[in-house]
Structures are given as C-alpha cells and as structure tokens.
Design goal:
The complex is a heterodimer of chains A (292) and B (184).
Chain A (H helix, E strand, L loop, with lengths): L1 H30 L1 H4 L1 H18 L1 H9 L2 E3 L5 H14 L5 E5 L6 E4 L7 E5 H6 L2 H16 L2 H27 L12 H41 L2 H13 L35 H14 L1
Parallel strand pairs in A: 2-4
Antiparallel strand pairs in A: 1-2, 3-4
Helix pairs in contact in A: 1-8, 1-9, 3-8, 5-7, 7-9, 7-10, 8-9, 10-11
Chain B lengths: L1 H58 L4 H16 L3 H23 L2 H5 L1 H36 L4 H4 L27
Helix pairs in contact in B: 1-2, 1-5, 2-3
Classes of the chains: A mainly alpha (292), B mainly alpha (184).
Chain lengths: 292, 184
C-alpha cells in the first residue's frame, strides 16, 4: 500500500520530467535555437520562487494562514497527543500552531522533520475526541515523515518552470519571434508544438494535483502504521466529511497542505483536486479496519 | 587504465562495506534509543501511581487488595532490568491499573473529582506513550534482526558486534480472550 503509493509518486514526478522535456522539444521545433535560451531562465525563476518558500515554509505558512504558535502550557492535552505520535514514529517534536477558525482542519509543513510545524484550527480541536485527533495528528506527522513538503516543492518547481516557459514562448509567438520562418520545417510539427506549448501548463497542474492526491493517500496509510488504529482517522475523516464549513482563507496557494481541502469541492473537478475524495479515503481506512 | 579500474573497484567495495557496517550500527543505536524511550515512559507511569492510589484511597478505603496489587506491580516494575522482566512487570502494572480504574467506577464522587479526572487523563496518555514506545521498539528490533539474519548485512554483523535483540512482549491476559464475533 505505502510502497505502491511511493512508486506512483515517483512515476508522476517522472511524468513531470517527461512533460518538461516535451515542452523544451516543442520550443526548439517552433523557435529553433533561440527557444532553448528560455528554458534555463524559466527553471531558474521557478527554482528561486519555490525553493525560497520551501526553505522557509514553516514561517511562510504561518503568515499565510494566520496560524499562531502555541506552547505546551497553552494546551497540554494536545501536546500529550502529539508526543504520543512522535514516540510512535520516532520523529522529533514539531512546532505546534493554532488557527482561529471554526472549520475543522489541520496541516503540516516544514522543510525537514527538525523544522516541522503542525497546525490545527480551533474548530478541529473543539469537535474531535481523543482517538479522532490522534488520527489527524498521525496523518499530519506522516506528511512530515514522508517529506511531503519536499515532494510538493519539487512538483511546484517543475510545474512553475513549465508554466513560465510556455508563457514566455506564447508571448514570443505573438511578437513573431520565430527566426527560421522561411525554412522548410514540417507544418504539422509546428502546429503540434504550438498546441503542446499551450496545453503544457494545464497538464503540469494536473500532474501536480495527482502527486498531491497520492501523497494524501500515502499519509493516511503511514498514519495508520503509526497509530495501528485506522478507526480513529476514519471517524475523524467522517467528521470532516459531514462538516460543511470551510476554512475562511481560501488561497489556492496553500490549499494542498490542509488535511481536508479548503476549496469548495464543486468548484474543483477531480483532475485538479489536491485531495482524493474523502469518501474514498474513508473506504480505504475501513478496509484496513477489517484487516486488523 | 587498469590501475584506475582497479582503484574504482576497490573504492566501490569499500563504500559497500562501510554502508553495510554503518547501517547495522545505526539500527542498533535506534533500538537502544527506543529502549530508553520505553524506560522513560515506564518511569513516568510509575511516578503517577502513588498519587493515583492516594486519590482513590481518599474515596474508596475498603479496596486494600486492589491497592496492594498496584503497589506490588509498581515495585516489580521499578526494579526490573532485563527486557523480559521489564515487559512482564509492565504487563502486571497495566493489569493492576485497570483493576484500580474499575474500582473507581463504583465511586461517583471519586470519578467526579477534578484531581482524579486530571490523573485519569494523564494516565491515559502515559499508557498510550508506553504502548507506542513498545511498538516503536519492536519495529526497530524487527528491522535489526532482519538485517542481522539476511544476506548481505548478516556477513557484517559479527564485525560490527551487532547481534539479534529481544522483542518486548507483554503478557496481557485480555489479549488472549476470545474475540467477540458478531454477524450484523
């Protein structure tokens, strides 16, 4: 289960690489040698923007979500639960933060386990019992253990680079940047590469979402390997599924980090969703319960 | 040319040896750390017991045999050193505490007291921590033992002075009960 999820993530990341390569090839076909110069620039821009936020992810997300760091004395019960999971997983104790929001939700971030941060909305702390909260904490620490901040940073970098490349090239097209206009290049190849350049960013976003969905399923499986109690996480997800309130701040930039997607499910189709359907996740956990 | 290839082969073999050796040492250290964690959590639980017994005594004076069972189990647990002894004493303490909490059920005043409720929460989290530290220890012992027994790492076990470790197995009579089967 966990191994299969990991393989699929690697496959999807390789899909990103292939897509990048196709884009570069299309650029070369369309623009000749001048198109190639764009690629390192685009990768450079994407790297700087994404890796800056990856390195400071714990601090950045705090400001973006309005989460406040808390100490053990602020909520000893929550800290006890988190300590339980750090013992089960062998991870260091993460920083803990609370977002004042009635919608039940939680997230984890940080560039490595030593800089991990997990945050909970006041809503989730109010509605969930011990076992449910334990399942949620295990899911969040599973993201930390699986280094999902790194995985999503890699995915975001490639998707970003692809978007920048095709954006720049489409602009160049409008200004008639094609140098070898008089050469006898195959017209079908030219049209094809144009279509690829236009569709590539869309495909990149879809791949990025698919990777995120795989990491969510993987985190559910890893969480169960920590707690050995699929029922806790399952009933927590049922609470989240039944709850219709949604985290107030709906910035798509940080949508993927929450345990339950903060975006309105109807507005995002399955292909672009950062999370697998919650009913599907519940069904998987139920099947684990019957195994144990 | 032959010299370079020869050196490369030697270097590769050296890297392989070192990584195998380091892996065994690392696994062994993780088991040590996991064991230390079990001891920390057991100590924490042992420290909670006198307070808990005193609190229950305040409301339920005629349950001497239950108190004795807890105190005896705790004494055994605090003196145990080997893995098997510690595990056996751990099982006894868990069992005795369960009895103590069952007694508390019969005293509504006790159950309602703030002191008892906070102790109960602390006991619940400590029991979980003990259970998780056991689980983490056993998982790591399993990886270590697999490495010690399987090729190629088994060749390096003697050299790294790493050997199989003992699992932490708690005898819990409740686990052996016939499970409830219901068809609905």
């Amino acid at each position: 289960m966990q191994a299969a999820n990991r393989r699929k993530t690697i496959g999807l990341l390789m899909g990103m690489g292939v897509l990048m390569w196709v884009v570069v090839y299309a650029a070369l076909t369309y623009f000749g040698g001048s198109g190639a110069g764009i690629v390192p620039i685009a990768v450079g821009i994407a790297l700087i923007s994404v890796w800056g936020s990856y390195y400071g992810s714990d601090k950045l997300v705090l400001t973006m979500t309005g989460a406040k760091l808390i100490q053990e004395s602020d909520n000893p019960k929550l800290f006890d639960l988190i300590q339980e999971i750090t013992i089960a997983s062998g991870l260091p104790m993460p920083k803990v933060a609370v977002v004042i929001d009635d919608a039940p939700n939680a997230f984890a971030t940080g560039r490595n386990p030593e800089h991990a941060l997990i945050a909970f909305t006041t809503g989730i702390l109010d509605v969930m019992d011990r076992d449910q909260l334990q399942g949620v904490i295990a899911h969040e620490l599973a993201h930390v253990a699986n280094r999902d901040t790194l995985v999503s940073a890699v995915a975001a970098t490639t998707a970003g680079a692809i978007a920048i490349v095709s954006d720049m090239l489409t602009r160049m097209m409008f200004f008639g940047g094609r140098r070898d206009r008089d050469s006898n290049a195959n017209p079908i190849a030219l049209i094809l590469s144009l279509v690829i350049l236009i569709l590539a960013p869309l495909a990149a976003v879809m791949l990025k979402s698919a990777i995120s969905r795989k990491r969510e399923s993987l985190a559910d499986a890893t969480a169960v390997s920590f707690t050995r109690n699929p029922a806790g996480l399952r009933s927590a997800l049922e609470v989240l599924a039944a709850d219709s309130t949604v985290v107030q701040q709906r910035s798509t930039a940080v949508a993927h980090i929450w345990i339950e997607s903060p975006l309105d499910a109807k507005s995002v189709s399955k292909m672009f969703s950062t999370h697998p359907p919650i009913q599907e996740r519940i069904a998987v956990l139920k099947s684990m319960e019957s195994l144990g | 040319m032959e010299l370079i290839i020869g050196l490369a082969v030697v270097a590769l073999i050296a890297v392989f040896f070192i990584s195998q050796y380091n892996r065994l040492i690392r696994l062994n250290i993780t088991v040590d750390e996991a064991w230390a964690q079990i001891e920390v959590q057991l100590k924490r639980r042992a420290d909670l017991i006198p307070n808990l017994v005193e609190t229950v005594k305040g409301y339920a004076k005629h349950e001497q045999s239950t108190f004795d069972a807890v105190v005896t189990a705790r004494a055994k647990a605090t003196t145990a050193t080997t893995v098997a002894d510690t595990a056996a004493a751990d099982g006894m303490v868990t069992q005795a505490l369960r009895g103590l909490l069952a007694v508390a059920e019969a005293y509504p005043d006790l159950k309602a007291s703030a002191n008892f409720m906070s102790l109960q929460e602390e006991l619940a989290t400590t029991e979980n921590k003990v259970a998780f530290s056991r689980q983490f220890y056993n998982d790591n012992v399993r990886s270590l033992n697999t490495a010690v027994k399987t090729i190629p790492s088994s060749f390096f076990a003697g050299f790294a002075k790493v050997s199989e470790r003992e699992f932490y197995e708690v005898e819990d009579p409740q686990d052996r009960n016939v499970p409830n089967v219901s068809f609905n």
